């Protein structure tokens, strides 16, 4: 699938397993199949192939940016998730997840540099939350929000080499690591070609 959403200044291309991606009336939907994930175990061999999940990604313009969306997940099994995804290289990528982890909807992050780390942030009431990934200079930041107005800082990090960051891709991922599949919708999608002045002031 190659898709151009009116909210984004770049085209999106499908990667990984088939995700059944569709866009209609401002809503992007995708579905992960059974036991699909994107993760390199911290205690595993980084030369092994990483597990994979459906991704819809585009090459972001140079400079600072913010990509946000409201994410609704049809939670059915542990670690089902809708994700904003950042890709710098084959072993350099990051996920901001709205995930059933394992029994409560939770904001989780994964940053992979050869191997993946895995960290839980705050729990969320319900099946919907806003997620945002940003680039400010050479750093990246993750935020979450209950209403798309007031944002809670989740994580700041670096990713990839300077050369890899020049061909950065960003977009959407769906996963169902332990279940039989998971459907996710992304709406209120927005791209801003600006960074954040203060990562922790709620803006």
UniProtKB/TrEMBL annotation:
One Pfam family recorded for the sequence: DUF1349
InterPro entries registered for this protein in UniProt: ConA-like_dom_sf (IPR013320), DUF1349 (IPR009784)
Protein name, as recorded: Regulation of enolase protein 1 (Concanavalin A-like superfamily)
Protein's organism: Streptomyces clavifer
